[in-house]
Amino acid sequence: MASGEGSSAAMRAFGADFAEADCLMLAEVATVLKQQADAHEEALRAGTTSEGLKDTFLKTLEYAQRFNHITEMQSIMDTRTMLEQAGLEPVQLAAMANLMPRSVAEARSLIPSLTERACSDDVLEGLINRLQELQRM
Amino acid sequence: YFGPKLQERLKEALHAKVEGTCTGRFGYVITVTEIVSMGKGRIEENIGDVVFDVRYKAIVFKPFTGEVLDAEVVSVSEIGFSCTVGPLNVFVPHQRLGDFSFDADAAPQCWTSPDSRHVIKVDSEVRIKIQAVNEHANDIFCIGTISEDFLGVI
């Protein structure tokens, strides 16, 4: 999922419109959508709206909650910080957090742009281990 | 409409207009997250409507070829299975199911691996790779595969 700011060569593959966009992890999407769903619930109760939530929104919220691996807010923030500091591109960052590969071979197979040049075996292994820990918290 | 609640009305109108839409350019617009600016509004001659240029940020979902995604199976048949990634529909044809075979007699019908350890049926979770993205007017439809390393039943 892409939104907001940031820039990356990988994002240009999506087209010029996405050159400045960022990639969200499922954990972040779930958080934002849940907040909006709760606010909408409040608005319904207060009578300030009578519109329902769109199908696309509800399907995405359900999907993000079902397939997200990182539930604690602090863990979500730590995950983003860690992956950004490792120099991962937005698309790679989101893919690592969403797919949770369990080995260097799996990570490189699922995310082809994550070459050895982009991220060494040692660093990648460290990220994978730390992601497993963050998932369990 | 043009009194003190103008800003709120504009926000509601924006949400109603763009959320849930899907274009080839941006993919699915899931939700508006921020309104960056609202113009001053100009009156349309002869009609009396007022047009505002609104700049906003949104969460969108645009799949790309080669992307690996987790998906929820929604239907199974002898020609393959359909699954969803949020609002997106992906079809995985039988030619892309590796050595899985269709069990028409099972209830419910499913695809099973040779050693019977893995089963693909409705509500199964599968890891797929997008092989083709077809953009229609209001929708995107994808073809996927599970017949590569690290893909398949989760």
Task: Please characterize this protein's 3D structure.
With 137 residues, chain A is mainly α. Chain A has a domain of 64 residues: Growth Hormone, Chain: A (Up-down Bundle), CATH 1.20.1250.40. Chain A has six helices and two strands. A two-stranded antiparallel ribbon of chain A has the order 1-2. In chain A, helix 1 crosses helix 2. The radius of gyration of chain A is 17 Å and the shape is elongated. The N terminus of chain A is likely disordered. Chain B is mainly β and 154 residues long. Chain B has two domains: 57 residues, no CATH class; 87 residues, OB fold (Dihydrolipoamide Acetyltransferase, E2P), CATH 2.40.50.140. Helices cover 8% and strands 49% of the residues of chain B. Chain B has one helix and 14 strands; from the N terminus they run αββββββββββββββ. In chain B, the strands form four sheets. Chain B has a five-stranded mixed β-barrel with strand order 6-7-8-13-12. In chain B, a hairpin with a 4-residue loop joins strand 12 and strand 13. Chain B is elongated and about 70 Å long. The mean pLDDT of chain B is 93. At the A-B interface, strand 1, helix 1, helix 2, helix 4 and helix 5 of A face strand 2, strand 5 and strand 6 of B.
- CATH architectural arrangement of the domain at 73-136 in chain A: Up-down Bundle
What proportion of the residues of chain A form beta strands (DSSP E)?
A: under 5%
Number of domains of chain B: 2
Biggest sheet: strand arrangement of chain B: 6-7-8-13-12
- Number-wise, the strands of chain B total 14
Mean pLDDT of chain B: 93
- The side-by-side strand order for the widest beta sheet of chain A comes to 1-2
Helix and strand composition category of chain A: mainly alpha
* Helix count from the secondary structure assignment of chain B: 1
Instruction: Name the chain pair whose interface involves the most residues.
Output: A-B, 36 and 33 residues
